[in-house]
Structure formats: C-alpha cells, structure tokens
Amino acid sequence: FRVRRDKVDITGVVTLRHNSRLHHIGIGRGLVGTRVLVLVDRLEVRVITEDGELLRSFTLDPAKDYQPRSLDER
After folding, report:
1. Which carries the bigger pLDDT value, residue 69 or residue 32?
2. Closest to 6 in 3D by CA, of 33, 36, 49
3. For residues 41 and 22, what is the distance between their CA atoms, to the nearest angstrom?
4. Nearest 5°: phi and psi at 65?
C-alpha cells in the first residue's frame, strides 16, 4: 500500500510511478491546482482530495502510459 501526495497539473493530470514506469492519470482540467492523495494497492488506485472527496477509483493498466477517465466518470 502506498500514499502519494501530488497536485493536479495544468493539463488535468497527476503522475504515478509503477514498476519503474511513469503513468499519467487523467483527473480533469477543472481541478487544476487541486492537491490530491493517490492511494495505491497493487494495481488498484484511488485519487482523493485532501478533504477526502473521491475523484477517481480504477485499476491501473500497466501497459498504458496514460490512464484516461472512463465515459461514466465524466
């Protein structure tokens, strides 16, 4: 289990390193500058605000560098 603190960048993305590979996680441009916690348990990832609001919950696909938001998350 890992916890990573980050801030949503100007493109609406946070980054996560998994098995020495950098992955970009789409959060949304409307949240630029928001401080978040990325909670990782093997391939299960949750992104929450510092206030505890869940922004994303998904299974990391190690084959993809970019982890886009799904249609039902928009």
Report:
1. 32
2. 36
3. 16
4. -75, -35
